TrEMBL record:
Membrane-crossing segments per the record: 21-39
Organism encoding this protein: Paenibacillus xylanexedens
Gene: divIB
Family the UniProt entry places it in: Belongs to the FtsQ/DivIB family. DivIB subfamily.
Name of the featured protein: Cell division protein DivIB
UniProt KW keywords: Cell cycle, Cell division, Cell membrane, Membrane, Transmembrane, Transmembrane helix
Purpose: Cell division protein that may be involved in stabilizing or promoting the assembly of the division complex.
Pfam families: POTRA_1
Keyword presence, Cell cycle: yes
Length: 255
């Protein structure tokens, strides 16, 4: 007799795996739905842009350069991109961007230090920054009286930027007596300048030597009478009023 074949029974699949897959699919759909609703809501958009730290640069200029606008996507622009855009402004030294959810972006800028001032051709007062940038001083801002005034300088003179960089390296206490700086180039010293001080000294030096010679300048100012100081390859001092030999004579001595 032929053997009868017993049919193989199918294994029952655990219902737990199917339920778990359904839960995962539903959870993913829920997350996608929340994401869609979030990015379409006002919470995902920029509600306020705050800019602080700027003195000479207009807030409107910084806002335009940042590329940010209220109502745009909060996560649409990276912090690094905003910083990179703002640092293209020559007056700006450092930038920090702080995103505060929901919707607030705080931008803090720091401009280069003011090293001097100059009068524009239209009579407006301009601040010269350490970067060499010249910006109009708003009427609401006070002027630092210890900074020198640049006169007779052309706007496109490359020495002005080098002078600004040199002044930025000198401590404030060593430049407080300098009242005016004028270009005074010669064939031997193309970057020569003439300076006048509040203590009535006239100073001849060069842009490249200024930072190294300024300590000698202050030593002479503190110990000598007003005169002409030359600080080039050699340092010399000549008083405007020569010493009177009679002043050095002893009392009662015959002439």
């Amino acid at each position: 007799m032929p053997k009868s074949q017993i049919p193989v029974l199918k294994k029952n699949r655990p219902k737990g795996n199917t339920s778990r897959k359904i839960v995962i699919i539903l959870l993913l759909l829920f997350i996608v739905l929340l994401a869609v609703l979030f990015f379409r809501s006002s919470m995902s958009r920029i509600s306020a842009i705050e800019i602080t730290g700027n003195v000479y640069t207009a807030t409107s200029e910084l806002l335009e350069k940042s590329g940010l606008k209220e109502g745009e996507q909060f996560f649409g622009t990276s912090t690094a991109e905003v910083i990179e855009r703002l640092k293209t402004i020559k007056a700006i030294s450092t930038v920090t961007v702080d995103k505060q959810f929901p919707g607030i972006i705080h931008i803090k800028v720091q401009e280069y230090a003011t090293v001097a001032y100059e009068l524009g051709s239209d009579g407006t007062l301009k601040a010269i920054l350490a970067s060499g940038t010249s910006l109009t001083v708003p009427a609401t801002i006070g002027v630092a009286v210890e900074k020198p005034i640049l006169t007779q300088w052309k706007d496109d003179d490359p020495l002005k930027a080098k002078l600004s960089q040199a002044l930025a390296k000198i401590p404030n206490e060593l430049t407080t007596d300098i009242s005016e700086i004028i270009p005074n180039p010669t064939p031997s010293f193309p970057d020569q300048i003439r300076m006048y001080t509040k203590s009535q000294f006239e100073v001849i030096t060069t842009v490249s030597l200024l930072s190294d010679k300024v300590e000698y300048l202050n030593q002479v100012i503190e110990t000598e009478r007003p005169g002409k100081i030359t600080m080039l390859e050699a340092d010399t001092y000549v008083p405007f009023i020569p010493d009177d030999p009679e002043d050095d004579a002893e009392p009662g001595a015959s002439p």
